[in-house]
Design brief:
This protein is α/β, with parallel strands linked by helices. Helix content is 29%, strand content 24%. β2, α2 and β3 form a beta-alpha-beta unit. InterPro entries: His_Pase_superF_clade-1 (IPR013078), His_PPase_superfam (IPR029033).
Length: 158
């Protein structure tokens, strides 16, 4: 059976500043609205999510909450290794999902998610804007068998 990854960049946030810790930055109204629309599209498509993993940053937690409000998410976890991760760290997170979880979602940050999508699919033109999601299919039995260029880009949603 194929595995499916929904890779999501958090929604539009308040601007970074010296007065606020990066982990504490929140989504702003346009980002919330965009993610609510994305969640409705996923719901209407009957999207399945066995396990949702997200960065500990407020903006990723809020993104995950909005998406899971419209989806039935079987498991959810905060994964420290997603915060400020490159494609190597994100691959380790992906490789460690339980094999019974065939549809997983990861919510993270740029530039990591853009580089990770390119690494997995060979589609190096992808540049994630806030709130963007890609669906990638892998024709493997186990998550640990996923590596460079092993995924097929199925869909881009924004």
């Amino acid at each position: 059976m194929a595995k499916e990854l929904l890779l999501v960049r958090h929604g539009i946030t308040e601007a970074p500043g010296f007065d606020k810790n990066d982990l504490k930055r929140d989504l702003i109204k346009p980002g919330i609205d965009q993610l609510e629309r994305l969640a409705k599209v996923l719901n209407s498509n009957g999207q399945i999510c066995d396990h949702m993993a997200h960065s500990p940053a407020n903006r990723c937690r809020q993104t995950a909450q909005i998406l899971s409000s419209q989806l039935e998410v079987r498991k959810s976890s905060v994964v420290m290794d997603i915060y400020q991760a490159g494609h190597g760290e994100l691959l380790q997170v992906l490789n460690n999902f339980e094999n019974e979880d065939t549809h997983v979602m990861m919510v993270g940050h740029n530039p990591g998610v853009s580089h990770f999508a390119a690494f997995l699919t060979g589609e190096d033109h992808l540049l994630f804007s806030p709130g963007m999601m890609v669906r990638i299919a892998f024709y493997v039995e186990e998550w640990e068998h996923i590596s460079k260029n092993s995924g097929v880009l199925i869909e881009i949603l924004q």
